[in-house]
Amino acid sequence: MSTLALTVILAFVLDKLFAEPKRFHPLVGFGNYVSRIESWLNQGESRTLKGVLAVIIAILPWLLISVVLTALIAESSLLNVIVSAVVLYLAVGWQSLLQHAQQIVGPLKTGNLEQARTYVSWIVSRDTDTLDDTQVAKAATESVLENGADAIFAAVFCFCLMGIPGVVLYRCSNTLDAMWGYKNERFLSFGWAAARLDDVLNYIPARLTALSYALMGNTKQALDCWQRKGHIGKSPNAGPVMASGAGALNVSLGGAASYHNRIEQKPVLGPEEDENTRASADSITHACDLVNKTLVMWIVVIMVMSWGISVACS
């Protein structure tokens, strides 16, 4: 087995065993660090330029550290695998995503809508106080599909392409987008650079994820939904992922959603809603299953491609 494949597998074994660290997670520290940067720079004039500077200050030190770390472990294959696996493990959110999603399933099935709303509010940015059971299931299913791309597959792609520096760059950029990428008065100009960098880094991984969802589900319908509806949404990357995922699962997603007490009409992703395609607790479970099957496929592909490259180079 190649070093790359072994590293990826070990990272997900660590995630399966330990899930997200409850204390001292590096991303929590990074979040505190960039919050101070934002408080310092996000004021006065020229906020777009200050946002560019903020992104550089936020990411560059950690990127340089990752480059130095890569050089230090390069001579030892064992150390390279272990350290790289730990870094990738800290950058992905596989078990955390599944656990948060499955928390919503139980209350939905037992009719505890208030608890389901509370749990879904932990993983979505929309207003959840007035959601009915279908809307809760829809929000959770969308979150699983989109975060599968962001929190798992994009991180793996960047790691395979650029090693530790690649996954550090991606995870820092994605975190900045989550914190600064809002289209409101505070962040519209300042967060522009963070949002655009995340769009660029996610462009190819999002489409690979959309293709993977299609291959692991209802392929024909997923590809059709991706082609017809993947470009309609505001996000250039979330649209293809969720449209393909909705088609793969045969579930209707999108539609009206409330953000900060303002209704936004999102495009319908997937098939039109009827009694057979309406989102439910089962849709959330099926979305988790789709993410798991896609992860297995990615690991197999990485193993095969790594073997093929090693044979070609030998």
TrEMBL record:
Q: Which InterPro entries match?
A: Cobalamin_biosynth_CobD/CbiB (IPR004485)
- In which pathway does this enzyme or protein participate? Cofactor biosynthesis; adenosylcobalamin biosynthesis
Question: Any idea where this protein resides?
Answer: Cell membrane
Claim: Repeat is one of the keywords in the record: no
Check the record and name the Pfam families matching this protein: CobD_Cbib (PF03186)
Q: Transmembrane residues, as ranges? A: 51-73, 78-97, 151-170, 295-312
Alphabetically sorted, this entry's keywords are: Cell membrane, Cobalamin biosynthesis, Membrane, Transmembrane, Transmembrane helix
Protein's membrane topology: Multi-pass membrane protein
Q: What is its main location?
A: membrane
Q: What's the family?
A: Belongs to the CobD/CbiB family.
Q: What does this protein do, in the record's words?
A: Converts cobyric acid to cobinamide by the addition of aminopropanol on the F carboxylic group.
NCBIfam families in UniProt = cobal_cbiB (TIGR00380)
- What's the protein called, per UniProt? Cobalamin biosynthesis protein CobD
Q: Give the source species.
A: Litoribrevibacter euphylliae
